[in-house]
Design a protein that fits this description.
By secondary structure, this protein is an alpha/beta fold. The chain contains six helices and seven strands. Strands 1, 2, 3, 4, 5, 6 and 7 form a seven-stranded mixed beta sheet that branches. α1 crosses α6 and α5 packs across α6 (181-193).
Length: 195
C-alpha cells in the first residue's frame, strides 16, 4: 500500500518508515513532486494536520497523513501550543529564539509543568470516499530552567519528560523515539493501518 506522509523532514520520514515496516511504501512530498509550501493556518494542531493532509488528497488524489506538534505549558495557559515552531516570531523555525522566549516568559515561575502533543490526521481515499482518522500522542514533563544536552531539535534541550532525570536532548534519539509524543501517535497510526 502506498501512502503519502505530508513532510520532507528526513528524520520524521525514516522514523515513520521504521515503525510501519515493509507493508507500506511511505512517500514524501518530494516523492510525489509536491514542492508547495502547504499552509498551516488553523488554530489547533488537529486543524493544521487535517489541512496539510487535505491539501495532498485534493491535489494528488492519494491517501495521506500529516502531523502537527505543539508544546503546551501550564503556566502559560497552554502556550506556545499551535505556535510552537514560530513562537519567537520572525521567519522560519528558530529553535534557539523560541527556547529563549519560553524561558523568559516562564521566568522564576515554579509551575514548570508542560506536555508535548502530536496529532496525526490520516485521510484514506477509497474511490470517491475519503475517510478521516485522528491519532494523538502526549508526553508529560517539565520545562527546565536552562538548556541541557545537544541532541534532538526544537525544545528538546529544555523539556524533561516525566520519569526521567534528563531532557530529550540528553536522552538521545533512541530513547526519545520510544517515548515521545510523535512515537505514541505513530504507534496508534500503525496499529490502525496494520489491522
Amino acid at each position: 500500500m502506498q501512502i503519502v506522509f505530508a513532510t520532507n523532514n528526513q528524520h520524521k520520514l525514516s522514523e515513520i518508515r521504521d515503525i510501519l515496516g515493509e507493508q507500506f511504501e511511505i512517500l514524501s512530498l518530494a516523492d510525489i513532486g509536491c514542492h508547495d509550501d502547504i499552509p498551516e493556518t488553523a488554530d489547533t494542531l488537529e486543524g493544521n494536520a487535517l489541512q496539510k493532509a487535505q491539501y495532498i488528497v485534493e491535489r494528488y488524489g492519494i491517501s495521506c497523513f500529516a502531523d502537527d506538534t505543539g508544546l503546551e505549558v501550564d503556566a502559560l495557559d497552554g502556550a506556545p501550543g499551535v505556535f510552537s515552531a514560530r513562537y519567537a516570531g520572525g521567519e522560519g523555525h528558530d529553535s534557539e529564539a523560541n527556547m529563549q522566549q519560553l524561558l523568559a516568559e516562564l521566568g522564576e515561575n515554579n509551575n514548570r509543568k508542560a506536555r508535548f502533543r502530536t496529532v496525526i490526521a490520516l485521510l484514506e481515499k477509497k474511490g470517491e470516499v475519503v475517510a478521516q482518522h485522528l491519532f494523538e500522542g502526549i508526553v508529560n514533563g517539565q520545562i527546565t530552567r536552562k538548556k541541557h544536552g545537544h541532541e534532538g531539535f526544537g525544545y528538546d534541550p529544555i523539556f524533561q519528560p516525566d520519569g526521567y532525570d534528563d531532557t530529550f536532548a540528553q536522552l538521545g534519539m533512541d530513547i526519545k523515539n520510544k517515548i515521545s509524543h510523535r512515537a505514541r501517535a505513530v504507534k496508534k497510526l500503525a496499529e490502525y493501518l496494520l489491522v
